Amino acid sequence: MDGGGGRRVVVIGGGVAGSLLCKSLQFDADVTLIDPKEYFEITWANLRAMVEPSFGERSVINHRDYLTNGRIVTSVAVNITEKEVLTAEGQEIPYDYLVIATGHNDPVPQTREQRLNEFKEENEKITSAQSILIVGGGPTGVEFAGEIAVDFPEKNVTLVHSGSRLLEFIGQKAADKALEWLRSKNVEVKLQQRVDLNSTADSNDGKTYHTSTGETLRADCHFLCTGKPLGSAWLKDTMLKDSLDKHGRLMVDEHLRVKGRKKIFAVGDITDIPEIKQGYLAQNQASMTAKNLKLLMTGKQESKLASYKPGSTLAIVSLGRRDAVAQFPFMTVCGIFPGMIKSRDMFVGKTRKKMGL
Ligand SMILES: Cc1cc2nc3c(=O)[nH]c(=O)nc-3n(C[C@H](O)[C@H](O)[C@H](O)COP(=O)(O)OP(=O)(O)OC[C@H]3O[C@@H](n4cnc5c(N)ncnc54)[C@H](O)[C@@H]3O)c2cc1C
């Protein structure tokens, strides 16, 4: 199949985009996946796995289960040259084509077993607490509050968010509906204040927390649900440092190649594509890039490459096991209908199928 440009494809990052890309290319190229963990996890199912640890059995998938014909390097990439990728362990991995898919940085354990145990520990923390403080009102904080409110209605849940509204990544209507839903489930939501986690103190009945508005809150434990940093800090010391925009995103052309580079692509949350950062869009980018790489490897001309068009503003935030709030391009709805789309199995079946499992 080699069109003269070589067929070694190295993919950095085994998240939603990188894993699908590897799976799609494995029988058409010499694929190497570099990822610090041995597994791919369906990130949006993690919060369900915290309230129901066995849920993780299907949402945490060893890379080897879907990547049967590729090399897996369990490490982080720390540098890139024109010809190879350097890992933290000092391995030099040569490439003909490189794809960067390092999305967001989430320090999680290396093995699947450790990750499943982590869900059990988090679950014990939830079940043994009577009152829980959630710090952060983005998708993670809101979905997590929803999971606890539905599965453990007897617990007191407080959610503190620094912004003036929840879910700032989508529209005001969705935020209002989510707020209304959470309050209807007795979740206490406090906006425009920050929790100072350095001033936390143990008291007779749990812990006390202080917020930026001078309030004192009491809870048995807290969960930090603030946004994860982009996985691009390591690129700042590489030859791609000038390819990062001011937010730390990789600037790409219409074919998802890093601007000015012919053989280096980027997919998923790490790119500067002006669209809402969602996994289904990261998957679309991965599928298109797999096709483009196949064309390039068979010697097709650049004019044959597909171009990426930014996606719509569709996003669904689950609210427990039955409900969700969905932002569709022309309307926003909350309740059982969007819940039927996402909240029962959190797209786990659909994602596994996409991965050939
Ligand atoms: C609570 C929540 C709910 C969500 N719900 C949905 C939903 O319902 N539907 C949807 O479509 N999207 C949803 N999303 C968004 C979705 O999770 C992201 O858009 C998606 O994960 C992006 O995929 P990615 O492959 O770009 O990055 P990620 O999935 O973040 O993967 C990045 C990978 O890169 C690896 N990595 C990082 N740095 C390095 C390095 N230096 N070397 C090697 N590997 C590295 C990481 O280990 C990780 O495996 C949700 C997000 C959240 C937080």
Automatic annotation (TrEMBL):
GO terms for cellular component: cytoplasm. Belongs to the FAD-dependent oxidoreductase family. One of its GO terms (molecular function) is electron-transferring-flavoprotein dehydrogenase activity. The lineage of its organism: Eukaryota, Viridiplantae, Streptophyta, Embryophyta, Tracheophyta. Keywords: FAD, Flavoprotein, Oxidoreductase. Gene3D superfamilies: 3.50.50.100. This is FAD/NAD(P)-binding domain-containing protein. It comes from Erythroxylum novogranatense. Putative FAD-dependent oxidoreductase. InterPro entries: FAD/NAD-bd_sf, FAD/NAD-binding_dom. Residues 8-286 form the FAD/NAD(P)-binding domain.
